[in-house]
Amino acid sequence: MVAVEEKNIISSYKIPFSDVVAKKRRNAIWNRIWNIRDMIYATVLVLVHLFCVFAPFYFNWKAFWVAVVLYWITGNAVTISYHRNLAHMSFKLPKVLEYFFAYCASHALQGHPIDWVSKHRFHHKYVDTERDPHSPIDGFWFSHINWILDVDYMVYKVGKRKNVADLRKQFFYVFLMKTYLLHHIALGILLYKWGGMPFLVWGMNKWWQVDIGWCVIRLLERVGLATDVKVPSESQKQKMKTYLGK
């Protein structure tokens, strides 16, 4: 077991409007050495939000519908592919369809499949403990955004990522890992060529997400493309209701 080093813990405090006592970690922004991945993640986050500032000035209806279509494709691909298919293995797809959804999900700017799935599997394995990659016990800002910007701190929490061997064995996922940013650059170039700055500004942003992925999975199951679909049992649902106090 990899323990979280105490030198990274600065102090403790209570999160407002809750009974959770958070342990404040080292500052994810200041007084530390940034590696190249930290700088890339921070740059992408800043650029995405800058694009949002310019969005009203480049509005047109074609750009708006490009944003809606890309949202629907990429946002729902994350929940269908990264979350349910790869992280939880809650259903199976033909490889071609599996890779298609994973590629669409990669354009949601949430990381390549190996990275996303590894963190999410660790999150469920160590939920709300010292080893949870983004638990609220580490504080509000860390659990929402700072954990993305401090890659080295993830090593302190979970050690080497040996929980995605199934994905590392597949060439497609390794290829996406090594060329991840290139696909976003290519999409940006295509959007600019097709519709100029309006398409680039509106098309490269993910402003909201409505989870309709389950409807898509059920549709795939109906037509025979999704198999071995796993759903919670009644006893599991009752346990969840008890846990949530409902």
From TrEMBL:
Keyword annotations from UniProtKB, A to Z: Fatty acid biosynthesis, Fatty acid metabolism, Lipid biosynthesis, Lipid metabolism, Membrane, Oxidoreductase, Transmembrane, Transmembrane helix
Transmembrane segments: 39-58, 64-82, 171-192
Membrane topology: Multi-pass membrane protein
Record's GO cellular component terms: endoplasmic reticulum membrane
Named cofactor requirement(s): Fe(2+)
Domain of life: Eukaryota
Pathway(s) this gene product operates in, as recorded in its UniProt entry: Lipid metabolism
Location, primary (coarse class): membrane
Keyword Transmembrane helix tagged: yes
UniProt GO MF annotations: oxidoreductase activity, acting on paired donors, with oxidation of a pair of donors resulting in the reduction of molecular oxygen to two molecules of water
GO BP, sorted A to Z: very long-chain fatty acid biosynthetic process
Annotated compartments: Membrane
InterPro entries on file: Acyl-CoA_DS
PANTHER family recorded: ACYL-COA DESATURASE (PTHR11351), DESATURASE 1, ISOFORM A-RELATED (PTHR11351:SF31)
Family from the record: Belongs to the fatty acid desaturase type 1 family.
Domain notes: The histidine box domains are involved in binding the catalytic metal ions.
Name of the protein: Fatty acid desaturase domain-containing protein
Native source species: Stephania cephalantha
Lineage, uppermost ranks: Eukaryota, Viridiplantae, Streptophyta, Embryophyta, Tracheophyta
